[in-house]
Amino acid sequence: MSAGQNPLHNPLDRRLPRIAGPSGLVIFGVTGDLARKKLLPAVYDLTNRGLLPPGFGLTGFARRDWNADHFAQVTKEAVQAHARTPFRERVWKQLEAGIRFVPGEFDDDAAFERLADTVAELDRERGTGGNHAFYLSVPPSSFPLVCQQLAESGLSQSKPGAWRRVVIEKPFGHDLASARELNDVVSQVFPSDSVFRIDHYLGKETVQNLLAMRFANQLFEPVWNANYVDHVQITMAEDIGIGSRAGYYDGIGAARDVIQNHLLQLLALTAMEEPVSFDAASLRAEKEKVLSAVVRPRDLGRHTARGQYAAGWQAGEKVLGYHDEDGIPASSTTETYAAIRLDVDTRRWAGVPFYLRAGKRLGRRVTEIAVVFKRAPHLPFALSATQELGQNAIVIRVQPDEGVTLRFGAKVPGTAMEVRDVTMDFGYGHAFTESSPEAYERLILDVLLGDPPLFPHHREVELSWEILDPIIDYWERHGRPDAYRPGTWGPESADAMLARDGRIWRRP
Q1: Do both 257 and 367 map to the same domain?
Q2: Which sign does the torsion angle of CA 485, 487, 493, 496 carry?
Q3: Among residues 145, 176, 199, which one ends one of the domains?
C-alpha cells in the first residue's frame, strides 16, 4: 500500500470513485435534525466507503456544553440510527480519532478563537493540510454573523496550497432582494468558487440520471422538444403535515420552500440544451439560459393555484388542519400547496407548458418529472379500440423508488384490436446491485473535492426568485389559499387550472 493511501478504499467501488484529499469539515448547528439525520451519517458512510482520508477531521460547533467525547457519542448514536452502510467498529475508530467539538455562541469571539486553535491542531495532528469546509446548518439570519466571525478569526482565509470553503443550506433568502443581500454577505468573506449552495435534490441519483438518459441515448433526445412534447409536469408531494416546523414554515410556504429551488432546478435540467461538457461552468451556463427564458403566465389568477390542508382523515388517522398545528396563527395565509404554470420561451419548448406543483398532506410521498407527449396524429383503429389509450409519457421518479417509467400503448391479448396503456419500468433497485449513494454523501464529497457541478450558482438563485416573486406578490394581494382535504391531490382550483388548458394532473 502506497503512503497516504486510504486502507478502507475499495478500488472496485465505482459509485463514488473520487477520494477526498487531506481535509476537515466543521459543522455549525451540529445539534440539529439535519446534522443528526443526514450530515453525520453521510460522513460515516463516506468513511466506510473509503472515500475520506484516514486523517479526516470532523468538528462540531454549537452552544451545548459538550466536550469531544460527548460529541463523539452523539455522532455514534446518529450513525447507528441513520447511516446507510453497516456499522463497523474499525471504521468508527478511524473517524472518531478526528472528532472535535467547540462550544460557543455565534457572537462569542473567544469561541471562534478556540475553533481556529482546533483547526490548527487537526492540521498538526491529523494532517488535514489547512483544507477545511465550514457547513452552515443554521438559519439564514445567522449567516452574516458566522461569516463575519470566520473572517475576523482568519478561518475563512485560504493559504498557499490549501483551501477554505463554505457550505450554505437553503433557503437562499426569502425573495430576490434578500437573496442578493445574502450573496453580498457571503461573497465578502469567500470567493465565489469557494461557496457551495446545497440543494440536496441535485445530489439524487435519478436527477443526474435525467442528464444521462437525455444525452447518452439517441432514443430520447430527438423527441425532447415542442414537436412531440405536449406538456411537462413536475411534482413534489408529501403525505405529512408541517410537524414541528411551524417556526420555519409559516411565512415561507410551499412555493418558497421547494418550488423556488428544487422544482425550478428540475425544470432547468429537463429543458436545458446539451452542455459542451459536464463541468460546472458548462452546466450552469445551460441552466441559466433556461431560467432566463422562463415566462410567467399573464393571468396569474387562471394559471396558478394555492391551498392549505384542512383537518380530516388520512391513511386511517385523524390529522390536524394547518391552522390547528402548534404555532400557526388562525390568520395565516401561508400556502401548504402551490401550483404554477410556466413556459420556456425557446425554439425547443415554444408552446409547451411546464406545470409545477408541491404540497403537504397529499395522496402519497412522491417526486417525479413527467414528460407527456402529444397524441399520435392519426390512429388507424376504430374509436372503441382506443378508448382507454392515453398519452405517451416518460416519467422520471426522483423519490421514492428511483427510476424511469415509459408509458405507451399496446394491444390487449385477444381476438379484437384493443389498445391500452402499459408501462415499461426501470428501477435502480432492480437494475443495479450497488446501492445509490445518499444525496448528502455525494454533495459533501463534492465540497471536499472542490467539484461544484451539482451546486446552484448565485445567478441561478436570483433568476429563480425573479420568476417566483411576482407570483407570491400576487397571492399576497388576492385572498386566501383554498382548503383541501388531507390525502387528496390539492385544492379544486389546481384541477381547474389545468382544465383551462384542456389537460389533467397525472395521478402519481
Answers
A1: yes
A2: negative
A3: 199
Domain count, the chain: 2
Say whether both 82 and 211 belong to one domain.
no
95-139 pLDDT, tens per residue? 999 999 999 999 999 999 999 999 999 999 999 999 999 999 888
CA distance to 170, 174, 244, per residue, from 33 (Å): 15, 22, 11
Residues 250 and 168 in one domain: no
Catalytic residue list? 262
| Alpha carbons 134 and 191: distance in angstroms, whole number | 14
Query: 143: domain CATH number?
Result: 3.40.50.720
pLDDT tens for each residue of 353-398: 999 999 999 999 999 999 999 877 655 555 555 455 577 888 898 8
Ordered DSSP codes for 104-135? --TT-HHHHHHHHHHHHHHHHHH--TT-EEEE
| Binding positions for NADP(+) | 63, 105-106, 170
Q: Are residues 343 and 490 in the same domain?
A: yes
Residue numbers belonging to the annotated binding site? 63, 105-106, 170, 200, 204, 238, 257, 360
Contacts made by residues 11-15, CB under 8 angstroms, sequence distance 24+: 13/49, 13/50, 13/434, 15/49, 15/434, 15/436, 15/437
Q: Is residue 481 part of a domain?
A: yes
Cell 449513494, residue?
437
Helical (H) or strand (E) element with 197 = strand 195-198
Where is the binding site for substrate, in residues? 200, 204, 238, 257, 360
Instruction: Tell me whether residue 494 is in a domain.
Output: yes
Cα 53 from Cα 63, distance rounded (Å): 28
Burial-class residue 51 by CB neighbours within 10 Å (0-12, 13-18, 19+): buried
Tell how many helices (H) and how many strands (E) occur in the chain.
17, 18
Domain shared by 96 and 211, yes or no: no
101 in Cβ contact with 142 (< 8 Å): no
Higher pLDDT among residues 235 and 138, named by residue: 235
Same domain, yes or no, for 241 and 359? Answer: yes
Domain encompassing residue 328: 204-372+455-499
